[in-house]
Amino acid sequence: MKRSLVLGLSVLLTVSAVAARAQQEILNASYDISRELFADVNKAFVPAYKASGGGDVVIKQSHAGSSRQARSILEGLKADVVTFNQVGDIQILADSKLVAKDWSTKFANNSSPFYSVHSILVRKGNPKGIKDWADLAKPGVSIVQVNPKTGGNGRYAVLAYYAAGLHASGGDAAKARALTKKILANVVVFESGGRTATSTFTEREIGDVLVTFEAETLAFANAPGSTFEVVTPSVSVLSEFPVAVVEKVAKKRGTEAVSKAYLNFLYTPQGQEILAKNYYRPRNAEVAARYSSKLTPVKTVEVADTFGGWDKATADFFANGALVDVLLKEIAAERVN
Amino acid sequence: MPRPRVIPGFGLTLGTTLVFLALATLLPLGALVLKTSSLTWSEFWGYVSDSRAVSTYRVTVLAASAATVINLVLGVLTAWILVRYEFPGRRLLDAAIDLPFALPTAVAGIALATLTVPHGPVGALFTPFGIKIAYAFPGIILAMTFTSLPFVVRTVQPVLADLEPQLEEAAASLGAGPVTTFVRVILPELLPSILAGGTLGLVRSLGEFGAVVFIAGNLPFQTEISALLIYIRMDEFDYVGAAAIATIILAAALLLLVAMNILQARLYRRFHG
């Protein structure tokens, strides 16, 4: 009796230990508008991982503004991998030793398996005749975008306006500043996150244009029964979607291997195909060529080249008292007078 | 012989209360002040007197005050009909009053915004008059009114229920008209509870975040509230800056609550002393 109990218990323990190893679980902390994307990725990754001998894995998702996710992880959220839309938000985690110092070299393409650009969503028929960024500066155009102070999405929008100004004037910073100011003066809503900005524009019918990631504008314009069109601007800022393993968490939970495999999966032709289907721009040339009719080629500038990297861009544009604050203050002052 | 007490031991009760208060309120508030105290006075002043911060105080205080005035009128009226009238659905209405407390504020904000945008079912009624509610200042007032309505109703309701109808009958028999009866007999009795409910509502509105950010539009210097600016500072990983502005809101709320307590004590003495 006693022996069989001991035997039963040990069998139970062994079984649960095997189950624990076989059934792994990782949490992917991601940005706000990637719900559909990672739902597709996870669906494909789970069988692929099992086929490669990795065992069963459950992937949990958490979505919020990328900076907020970074803060949650700093404050104790146990995420195994991060898939963000801002390099700075991973850098903060690296500074706190949660992520490897050299995280950006751990995976190809600066650890950014895909990219996007900011584009413009307008109402069907394009009633305001928007063709490029400069048209957003016209009087009477109302813009919905994410608050550049609270979301990477909004920061890319501002950098795109500025880059368009530089591009049109052959690099004249004063002209770029003037264009950015004119466009920001036409913003009617600074939404708190990417998805709320989209629903404000699409469902609540606020604004003539929505400025957000192309992955979002194309998804909504191509949805069945859509009443929207995408305007792909002549130039835009390449937005990286950096990924990293949160090593401190993964090490502790023994999920390093599966976390790494998960992020590597994004680089495989299968993963790249899923990304492209979700209107993100793939790095894989073959997949990119196949989707070039959907993802119109666009001239991109990189934050690293044009704006001296994210640290400098943040200090110049988005920090407390930097350009965005100054421009918004000027706009408010001029509106009163 | 001392009177027997229902709850045992003054020492035990006071101790429990103080420990709970310390853990639930003083500890986080203390941490907030501690965070702020790492700033020098001039740095602190720099954060809290920045023109953008000052404009958020203006937006927040103006909207919260407007919401409170609306709630005082609507709240007393609602309490009045709930106590004084029997009508079908009274219990349902009574229960519904607390819904704003139960509803996540973000949901409230999104729902109100959807209703009051220019093409929305409610917003469309105002559009012909050129009135914008969602993504404009009135939207902030609306969100604050919604989330703080229960306070006035719930503080006035029990006092009104306890008010003896004989008082009004006596006033009427002495020749007072309805207006005089209300102003000189009923209102003085209700005033302390109206004040208490109004202050709680005002303080709540000053700190409201979730409902407001989804309907405000968040344009700096126009529709940006202090709670959002605190959030923005946190997103810049500037925790001290966030704490500095939060301290101002906290101080304003504390001042209001203390002032209300003093005023209430005075009123009580005046009418009952």
Keywords:
heterodimer, A: 337 residues, alpha/beta, 8-stranded mixed beta sheet, 4-stranded mixed beta sheet, 16 helices, 12 strands, B: 273 residues, mainly alpha, 13 helices, 78% helix, globular
Order of helices and strands of chain A: HEHEHEHHEEHHEHEHEEEHHHEHEHHH
Q: Roughly how much helix do the residues of chain A carry, as a percent range?
A: 40-55%
Beta strand count of chain A: 12
Q: Mean pLDDT across all residues of chain B, rounded?
A: 89
| Low-confidence parts of chain B | none
Kindly report the greatest chain-chain contact and the residue count on each side. A-B, 28 and 29 residues
The number of helical segments of chain A is: 16
The string of secondary-structure elements of chain B, in order, is HHHHHHHHHHHHH
Query: What is the share of helical residues of chain B?
Result: over 70%
Q: How many whole angstroms does the radius of gyration of chain B measure?
A: 22 Å
Structure notes:
The complex is a heterodimer of chains A (337) and B (273). The longest helix of chain A has 21 residues, at 2-22. In chain A, helix 2 (35-51) runs antiparallel to helix 12, helix 6 packs across helix 7 (173-185) and helix 7 (173-185) crosses helix 16. Chain A is 50% helix and 18% strand. Chain A is α/β, with parallel strands linked by helices and 337 residues long. Chain A is globular. Chain A contains 16 helices and 12 strands. In chain A, strands 4, 5, 6, 7, 8, 9, 11 and 12 form an 8-stranded mixed beta sheet that branches. Chain A has a 4-stranded mixed beta sheet with strand order 2-1-3-10. The termini of chain A are far apart. By secondary structure, chain B is mainly α. Chain B is 78% helix and 0% strand. Chain B is built from 13 helices and no strands. Chain B is globular.
